[in-house]
Write a structure and sequence with these properties.
By secondary structure, the protein is mostly helical. The protein has helices at 5-14, 52-60, 75-94, 100-116, 131-147, 169-193, 202-213, 216-239, and strands at residues 29-32, 47-50, 149-152, 155-158. The chain has 2 domains: 5-94, no CATH class; 100-239, no CATH class.
């Protein structure tokens, strides 16, 4: 048995063809929230849209999988993801410059822009004074855009909301891409220093400092990727009639 085409069409429309977990448009599939083998039905109330990646993850971390050590997806959590996604899809229909949803998106974009308005995104790689600080800045920025939480001293405080709350689909995808690029930069940095499998500290970064400055290909790629992130966010700020972020060429 399977979902009826009528129910599938309705669910896809209600969710805006978004994956209910990551909110991306990835050739979504329709998944049974509660497996048929455990009493689930083929009704729309038991259906959720998932991209292939999240679909696989739900199977691996489902409430019925064995050998799963990380936190599992529950039926109630999946239903909450679905309802939240439907809410975003409904808001997309009402989105227009000057609307309430536009204003909410504007506040979020300005917060993310503020998170990127820091020396870690204005200093050329070969001019970095501390790779430990650079790595920490990348990590803090990723957390802030993903969750809306920022570092204040030794504490992480909720200041805004994460990028998943953006209603404008293009802006949400732009911030998804920005975070993916930040993660790629951080992974490359730590891989080059051999820090993926060890504890990071200032001494290890310091011992590699001179050699790492000579990694010109990697440094050029990191500079180019950071500039791509700034350009993407600046294009949104331009739509909002806001001043652009300073780029690498502008310096301080």
């Amino acid at each position: 048995m399977s979902f009826s085409q009528k129910d599938v069409d309705r669910l896809l429309a209600e969710c805006g063809r978004m994956c209910c977990i990551c909110k991306k448009l990835h050739q979504v599939q329709v998944h049974h929230i509660q497996p048929l083998s455990e009493g689930g039905s083929d009704g729309i109330a038991n259906a959720i849209t998932l991209c292939p990646n999240c679909h696989d993850e739900v199977h691996e971390r489902s409430h019925y999988s064995s050998g799963c050590t990380s936190r599992r997806y529950s039926i109630s959590e999946l239903k909450l993801h679905r309802e939240f996604t439907k809410k975003i899809a409904r808001k997309e229909q009402d989105w227009a410059p000057g609307s309430r949803t536009w204003t909410e998106d504007r506040h979020l974009i300005l917060f993310y822009a503020q998170c990127l308005d820091r020396p870690a995104f204005r200093t050329y790689f070969h001019q970095e004074l501390s790779f430990a600080d650079f790595d920490r800045a990348l990590a803090d920025t990723i957390t802030a855009i993903n969750t809306g939480c920022t570092k204040v001293g030794d504490s992480t405080l909720p200041i805004s909301k994460g990028k998943v709350f953006l209603i404008h689909r293009d802006w949400r995808e732009a911030m998804d891409t920005a975070v993916e690029k930040l993660e790629e930069i951080r992974d490359a940095l730590r891989r080059e220093l051999g820090l993926n499998n060890m504890f990071m500290d200032h001494d290890r970064f310091g011992r590699h400092h001179s050699r790492f400055h000579q990694a010109t290909d990697l440094g050029d790629w990191i500079d180019q990727t950071r500039q791509e992130i700034l350009d993407s966010v600046n294009s949104i700020l331009k739509e909002l009639d806001q001043p652009p972020l300073k780029d690498l060429k502008a310096g301080f």
